Amino acid sequence: MKSLKMLLLFLCFTSIIFAQETVKMQVKESKVPCTGVSPMECLQVKIDKEKEWTYFYDNIEGFDFVPGYRYKLKVEKSKREGNLPADASAYKYKLKKVVSKKKVKSTTVMDSYLLNKKMVLSKINGKKVENQSVYFILNDNKISGKSGCNRFSASYKLNGNKIEITPGMGTLMACDEESMRLEEQFLKALESRNFEIETAGSVVKFKKPNSKEVVMEFSIPSENDIWSFIDGKKWKLIMLENVGQDYGKAFIQFNATDKKVNGNSGCNNFFGTYSTKANSITFKGLGSTRMACLDQEASKIESKILKYLSDATVSFDVADQTLNFYHKNRLIMMFGLYTE
């Protein structure tokens, strides 16, 4: 009887140990507006070996965040028990140790408002821009996005409501005449380098310094706006690892209500679930049918697609007619809006 009790005690202790883990977490010096169940402010974190900052929608028990400091933490992550509401996290987090706390350059309201937000060009030189082919994101002193036809990157310095942009580099693809003309206007506008920024709601204006003249106007789409556009549509694969071609039946489709994803990887259908944080998607529990690919090249393509989508996290953005996936800032897949 005593041995049985000891065994039960051991099993209970083991289940508690395995239900929790210690993770290393970096916490950025400023919170950002985000949308969970409702509009809120989120910490920005990197967990373990993650290389990109992501929004953290949960609380860390015992952690008192002070803006202006960058933290390295050890955090105990454990699974919540019982029946959870649909909008609740499956995990809870508790501070184990503050490894370091370092003061960084002062963060401003403008930093919090602009960083890690997709900004879509809506006006240039007073003229309305109808499509959404020009956009960028500011992150860690780097601008990255699309200039109309090509992807581009540049560096910048943000000081209060003033921004200085240093021209960078971009791809050299050719597009339709309208996109190329818009790209030329946008890149020429960036050559001014120095702008004053004015914000109002989801609108961001880039003005000439010490002037009322607005050079460019951008809109910041909310996460709900982005996913309402992605949701339910069929996205056909048009580029894989920088190779654009006809990939046959390959496509992806999201059900934003149930957080389910399905599609075709060239030969087989796949299905699974996903979760989102800011501009990243994490795919989970991906399964697929098991038909044999008779074409050897199609089999290789299918393996690449499933590798990128199997229990993996990718960052993403949406252009006018494309859904783009990135791994370590490298474009790995591009999907075009399917039209019959």
In short:
With 340 residues, the protein is an alpha+beta fold. Helices cover 17% and strands 48% of the residues.
Instruction: Give the biggest beta sheet.
Output: 8 strands, antiparallel, barrel
- Overall average pLDDT: 84
- Helix-residue proportion: 10-25%
CATH topology of the largest domain: the name is Lipocalin
Q: What strand order characterises the main sheet? A: 8-10-11-12-13-14-15-16
> Looking at the structure, what is the overall shape?
flat
Total strand count, please?
Answer: 25
* Number of separate helices: 5
* Overall CATH class of the largest domain: Mainly Beta
The CATH architecture of the largest domain can be given as Beta Barrel
Which consecutive residue ranges, at least 5 long each, have pLDDT under 50?
Answer: 13-18
Radius of gyration: 23 Å
**Secondary-structure element order, N to C:** HEEEEEEEHEEEEEEHEEEHEEEEEEHEEE
The number of domains is: 3
Structural class call reads alpha+beta
The N- and C-terminal alpha carbons lie at a distance of 70 Å
Portion in beta strands = over 45%
Written description of the protein model:
This protein is an alpha+beta fold. The protein folds into 3 domains: 20-103; 109-219, Lipocalin, CATH 2.40.128; 223-337, Lipocalin (Beta Barrel), CATH 2.40.128.270. It has 5 helices and 25 strands.
Write the layout of secondary structure elements.
Layout: H1 2-18, E1 20-27, E2 32-35, E3 39-47, E4 54-56, E5 60-61, E6 69-79, E7 91-103, H2 109-114, E8 118-124, E9 127-128, E10 134-139, E11 142-147, E12 151-159, E13 162-170, H3 177-190, E14 194-200, E15 203-207, E16 214-219, H4 223-230, E17 234-240, E18 243-244, E19 251-255, E20 260-264, E21 269-277, E22 280-288, H5 296-309, E23 313-318, E24 322-327, E25 330-337
Parallel strand pairs: 5-7
Antiparallel strand pairs: 1-3, 1-6, 2-3, 3-4, 6-7, 8-9, 8-10, 8-16, 10-11, 11-12, 12-13, 13-14, 14-15, 15-16, 17-18, 17-19, 17-25, 19-20, 20-21, 21-22, 22-23, 23-24, 24-25
